[in-house]
C-alpha cells in the first residue's frame, strides 16, 4: 500500500465533519432558503438520507475489498479498462470539485475581507498549506482535524449562543405552509453536500479499528445534520424571510451579534471557523485526489505529485466559474446532479455489480 | 519505496524561497491601518431633487476622542464632524464624499442610519440595498426617520454625549420607542402585506434657554413614521406611538397615570410598568375576521397623588381596573389612526393570521389591504399592581384626610 499511515475511525469522523460543513454552513442556508423558505431547517434532515445512503454504499464496497480504495477496486469489479475509466472519472471529478471548493473559499475571502487581493494569491496560499498537510500524509491531516474541529464547533456554537436573544422562533411558523414539497426541493443542495461522504471510500482502508468504521461514519453524518440544522434554524430565526436575500447568512449573523453594547464584530470568528474548516476540507479532497492518482498510475509513492496537482487545483479554481453568480447558480442546480451522479449513482452501480457477481459465483459453486 | 530525497543545500534554499513567498501572502493588498480610515458612526440620507440624494456621514475625529479620555472625560466639544455629498445613488454619493476626505471611509462601525423625512416620503428601498450589499456594513444599525433633514439631525451636538451618534445609540438601548435595526426594516419591507414603522427623531434648533449651553441641542424621540410599501405615509405622535408599542409587544418603559375618584374630587395615581406581555389571538368566524388583543401588565405604584390609603386591597383593585381602561384607551388611539385612517398593517396581524389560519391566508393575502381595516379588535387587558412602592399611606397627608375604605 502506498499510504502507510493509520487513523482511527473517530479521526475519520472528525475529518469528514468539516469536509461537509465548512462550505455547507456558508452557502447552503441561502440556497435552501430560496426554495424551502420557512421550512429550510428541515432540508438538511431530508438531505442527510443521501448521506447515510452513501456511507452505507461506501461501507458495503469496503467490506468486499477491505484494503483498497475506490480507484483500485473499480478495476476489480468491472475489469481493467472500464475500471481505469471509472478511476479517471473520479480523479477528474475530485480535481474539478476541489477546484470549486478552493474557488468558494476564495470568493468568500475576497468578497468579504480581502477585496483587492488577487484571487490567485488567496487560492495559492491555501493550496500551498494544504499541500504540506497532504505531503505529510493521512495521519497529519487526521491530527490537524482532531486539533481544529473541536475549536471550530465550539466557536460556531458560541456565535449561536450570543445571538440567542435576537432569535425569533416565530419565524418558523407556519410549518409546511405549502406542503412538504418546498422543504424537499430545498434539500437538493444539502443532499449534494452530504454525498461528499463518499470520500470515506478513500479513508476506510486505513482504519486501525475497521469494525467501528460504519458506526463512526454514521455518527459523523449525524453531527453534520446537527450543525446544518442549527445553522439553518439560526439563520431563519434571525433573518426570517430575508435569509434567501443574503449571500452568506451566517456571516451576516456573526456581524449581527451585539451583547452588552461592546461585544460586537464577531466576523473574525466566522472567518476563523471558515479558514480552519476549509483547510481540512480542501486537504481531505486533495488527499483523495493525490492518493487516487498515485493508485491509478500505480506509482510507488505519492509525495512528488502533490505540488503539481496543487498547481492544477489552483487552475481549476480559477476556471471553475466566471463569477460568483454563476458559481452559486451552479451549486444550487446542476452541481446537485453532478455530485449525486458521481458520488451516489456510480458507486451504487459498482455495488450492484459486485453483489450480482457474488450471487452468480455462489450459484455456480452450488451447481458445481 | 524510499521518499525522494532532497539534498541538504537545496533544502536550505527551499526554506529561503518559501520565506520570500510567504511575504507575498500576508495580504498587503488589503492592508488598511487604523490611521488610514475614517470611521463612520451615523449615515444620513436626504432628498435633494428627483435625481439626487445627499449622503451625510458623521465621522469620528480620533484625536478628539483620545483627548477626552486624557482630560478625564471633560465631555467638551464634539468628537465627530459631519461631511456630506450629493449623488444619484448612495454609492455615487459615497465616491464623491470620499473625494472630500483624506482617509478611507469605513462603514464597519456605523451604528445609525437616519433617513430624511422627505426621502422617506419618496421611497427608501433602493437606498437600503447599499447596506446589505457593502461587505463591511452590518445589518445591526439602528434606522430612523428624522423630522426635517437628516443632515441637521446628525450634526446636532447634545449635552450629555459628545456625538449625535452616541445619543442615538443610548436612546435606542433605552428601548423607549420603537427599536428598528436595518435587518428588521428589511424584514418589514420584504413582507407583501405588512407596512413598516420606524421611530422618528427630532432635534430642536438651538435657542437660548436657561440651564442649557448655547449651540447644544438634544435629539429626542418624537414618534413613529408609518410606511406603506416603502413610502412614508404618515406620522404618529409620541402618545399614539406608545399604543403601537403595546400592540407590538415592544413596550418596556411606561408610566401610566390614572384618575381615581374620591369623595367629590379626583386624585391621581401614577404607575410604572415592570413587565408586560401582549398576545395576538386571531379569529375567523362566519367569514368575519377579528383579533383578540390579550395584554398582561405588571406595575408598581410610583406616585400617589390622591388621598387613598393603598393598604386597602380594594383600592388596588380599583387602580388595576383604571389602569386597564387607560391602556385600552391608548391602544384605541393608535388603532383609530393606523387601522382606520392609514390602513396599513404595522400591528403584525398579517403574521398572526398566517400562522393560525394558513389556508384562509392563502386567499386573503391578496386583498389584505381591504380586510385589515375591517378587522374587529377585542381587548382583554389585565393589569396587576404588585407593590405600592416603598410607602403605604400617601406621604404628608393628615390622618383625618386619609381615605382608607
Q: Strands, helices and their partners?
A:
The complex is a heterodimer of chains A (368) and B (405).
Chain A: H1 9-36, H2 43-64, H3 70-78, H4 80-112, H5 119-136, H6 138-163, H7 181-185, H8 188-194, H9 200-203, H10 213-239, H11 249-256, E1 258-259, E2 263-264, H12 267-296, H13 306-319, H14 324-332, H15 334-367
Antiparallel strand pairs in A: 1-2
Helix pairs in contact in A: 1-6, 1-8, 1-10, 1-12, 2-8, 2-10, 2-15, 3-4, 4-5, 4-12, 4-13, 5-12, 5-13, 6-12, 8-15, 11-12
Chain B: H1 8-24, E1 37-47, E2 53-60, H2 62-70, E3 80-87, H3 90-99, E4 104-106, E5 112-116, H4 117-122, H5 125-133, E6 142-146, H6 150-155, H7 164-174, H8 182-190, E7 196-203, E8 219-228, E9 231-237, H9 238-247, E10 255-261, E11 266-285, E12 288-304, H10 313-342, H11 349-356, H12 358-364, H13 368-371, E13 376-387
Parallel strand pairs in B: 1-4, 1-5, 5-6, 6-7, 12-13
Antiparallel strand pairs in B: 1-2, 2-3, 7-8, 8-9, 10-11, 11-12
Helix pairs in contact in B: 9-10, 11-12
Overview of this protein structure:
The complex is a heterodimer of chains A (about 375) and B (about 400). Chain A has about 375 residues and is mainly alpha-helical. Chain A has one domain: Amino acid/polyamine transporter I. Helices cover about 75% and strands about 0% of the residues of chain A. Chain A is built from 15 helices and 2 strands. Chain A has a two-stranded antiparallel ribbon. In chain A, helix 1 packs across helix 6 (about 140-165), helix 3 (about 70-80) packs antiparallel against helix 4 and helix 8 crosses helix 15. The longest helix of chain A has about 35 residues, at about 335-365. The model of chain A has no long low-confidence stretch (mean pLDDT about 90). Chain B has about 400 residues and is of the alpha/beta class. Chain B has 2 domains: about 30-235, no CATH class; about 255-405, GMP Synthetase, Chain A, domain 3 (2-Layer Sandwich), CATH 3.30.300. Helix content of chain B is about 35%, strand content about 30%. Chain B contains 13 helices and 13 strands. The longest helix of chain B has 30 residues, at about 315-340. The termini of chain B are far apart. At the A-B interface, helix 5 and helix 11 of A face helix 8 and helix 11 of B.
Amino acid at each position: 500500500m502506498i499510504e502507510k499511515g493509520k487513523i482511527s475511525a473517530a479521526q475519520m469522523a472528525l475529518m469528514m465533519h468539516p469536509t461537509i460543513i465548512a462550505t455547507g454552513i456558508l452557502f447552503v442556508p441561502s440556497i435552501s432558503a430560496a426554495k424551502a423558505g420557512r421550512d429550510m431547517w428541515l432540508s438538511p434532515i431530508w438531505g442527510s438520507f443521501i448521506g447515510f445512503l452513501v456511507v452505507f454504499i461506501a461501507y458495503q464496497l469496503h467490506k468486499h475489498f477491505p484494503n483498497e480504495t475506490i480507484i483500485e477496486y473499480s478495476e476489480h469489479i468491472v475489469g481493467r479498462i472500464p475500471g481505469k475509466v471509472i478511476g479517471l472519472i473520479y480523479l477528474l471529478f475530485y480535481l474539478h470539485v476541489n477546484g470549486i471548493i478552493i474557488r468558494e473559499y476564495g470568493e468568500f475571502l475576497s468578497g468579504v475581507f480581502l477585496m483587492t487581493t488577487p484571487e490567485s494569491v488567496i487560492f495559492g496560499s491555501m493550496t500551498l498549506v494544504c499541500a504540506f498537510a497532504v505531503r505529510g500524509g493521512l495521519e497529519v491531516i487526521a491530527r490537524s482535524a482532531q486539533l481544529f474541529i473541536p475549536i471550530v464547533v465550539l466557536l460556531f456554537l458560541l456565535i449561536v449562543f450570543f445571538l440567542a436573544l435576537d432569535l425569533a422562533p416565530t419565524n418558523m411558523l407556519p410549518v409546511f405552509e405549502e406542503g412538504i414539497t418546498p422543504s424537499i426541493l430545498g434539500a437538493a443542495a444539502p443532499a449534494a453536500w452530504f454525498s461528499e461522504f463518499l470520500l470515506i471510500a478513500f479513508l476506510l482502508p486505513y482504519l486501525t479499528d475497521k469494525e467501528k468504521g460504519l458506526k463512526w461514519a454514521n455518527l459523523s453524518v449525524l453531527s453534520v445534520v446537527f450543525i446544518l440544522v442549527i445553522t439553518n434554524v439560526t439563520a431563519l430565526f434571525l433573518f426570517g424571510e430575508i435569509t434567501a436575500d443574503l449571500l452568506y447568512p451566517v456571516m451576516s449573523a456573526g456581524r449581527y451579534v451585539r451583547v452588552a453594547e461592546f461585544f460586537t464584530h464577531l466576523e473574525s470568528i466566522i472567518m476563523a471557523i471558515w479558514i480552519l474548516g476549509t483547510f481540512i476540507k480542501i486537504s481531505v479532497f486533495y488527499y483523495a485526489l493525490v492518493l487516487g492518482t498515485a493508485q491509478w498510475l500505480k506509482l510507488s509513492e505519492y509525495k512528488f505529485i502533490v505540488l503539481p496537482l496543487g498547481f492544477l487545483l489552483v487552475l481549476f479554481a480559477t476556471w471553475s466559474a466566471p463569477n460568483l453568480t454563476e458559481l452559486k447558480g451552479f451549486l444550487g442546480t446542476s452541481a446537485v446532479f453532478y455530485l449525486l451522479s458521481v458520488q451516489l449513482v456510480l458507486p451504487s452501480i459498482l455495488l450492484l455489480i459486485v453483489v450480482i457477481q457474488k450471487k452468480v459465483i455462489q450459484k455456480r459453486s452450488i451447481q458445481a | 519505496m524510499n521518499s525522494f530525497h532532497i539534498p541538504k543545500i537545496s533544502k536550505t534554499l527551499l526554506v529561503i524561497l518559501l520565506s520570500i513567498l510567504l511575504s507575498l501572502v500576508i495580504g498587503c493588498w488589503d492592508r488598511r491601518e487604523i490611521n488610514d480610515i475614517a470611521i463612520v458612526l451615523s449615515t444620513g440620507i436626504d432628498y435633494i431633487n428627483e435625481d439626487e440624494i445627499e449622503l451625510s456621514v458623521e465621522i469620528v475625529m480620533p484625536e478628539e476622542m483620545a483627548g477626552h479620555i486624557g482630560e478625564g472625560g471633560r465631555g467638551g466639544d464634539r468628537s465627530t464632524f459631519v461631511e456630506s455629498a450629493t449623488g444619484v445613488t448612495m454609492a455615487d454619493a459615497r465616491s464623491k464624499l470620499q473625494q472630500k476626505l483624506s482617509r478611507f471611509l469605513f462603514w464597519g462601525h456605523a451604528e445609525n442610519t437616519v433617513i430624511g423625512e422627505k426621502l422617506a416620503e419618496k421611497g427608501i428601498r433602493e437606498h437600503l440595498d447599499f447596506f446589505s450589499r457593502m461587505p463591511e456594513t452590518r445589518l445591526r444599525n439602528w434606522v430612523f426617520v428624522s423630522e426635517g433633514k437628516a443632515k441637521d439631525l446628525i450634526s446636532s451636538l447634545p449635552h450629555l454625549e459628545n456625538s449625535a451618534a452616541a445619543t442615538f445609540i443610548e436612546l435606542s438601548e433605552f428601548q423607549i420607542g420603537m427599536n428598528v435595526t436595518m435587518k428588521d426594516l428589511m424584514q418589514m419591507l420584504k413582507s407583501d402585506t405588512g407596512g413598516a414603522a420606524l421611530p422618528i427623531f427630532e432635534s430642536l434648533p438651538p435657542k437660548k434657554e436657561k440651564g442649557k449651553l448655547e449651540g447644544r441641542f438634544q435629539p429626542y424621540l418624537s414618534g413613529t413614521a408609518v410606511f406603506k410599501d416603502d413610502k412614508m405615509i404618515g406620522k404618529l405622535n409620541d402618545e399614539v406611538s406608545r399604543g403601537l408599542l403595546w400592540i407590538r409587544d415592544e413596550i418596556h418603559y411606561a408610566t401610566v397615570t390614572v384618575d381615581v375618584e374620591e369623595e367629590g374630587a379626583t386624585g391621581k395615581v401614577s404607575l410604572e410598568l415592570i413587565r408586560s406581555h401582549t398576545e395576538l389571538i386571531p379569529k375567523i368566524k362566519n367569514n368575519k375576521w377579528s383579533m383578540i388583543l390579550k395584554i398582561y401588565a405588571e406595575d408598581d405604584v410610583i406616585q400617589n397623588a390622591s388621598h387613598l390609603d393603598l393598604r386597602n386591597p380594594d383600592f388596588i383593585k380599583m387602580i388595576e381596573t383604571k389602569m386597564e381602561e387607560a391602556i385600552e384607551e391608548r391602544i384605541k388611539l393608535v388603532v383609530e389612526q393606523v387601522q382606520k385612517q392609514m390602513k396599513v398593517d404595522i400591528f403584525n396581524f398579517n403574521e398572526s393570521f398566517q400562522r393560525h389560519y394558513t389556508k384562509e391566508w392563502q386567499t386573503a393575502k391578496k386583498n389584505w389591504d381591504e380586510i385589515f381595516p375591517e378587522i374587529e379588535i377585542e381587548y382583554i387587558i389585565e393589569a396587576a399592581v404588585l407593590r405600592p412602592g416603598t410607602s403605604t399611606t400617601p406621604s404628608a397627608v393628615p390622618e383625618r384626610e386619609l381615605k382608607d375604605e
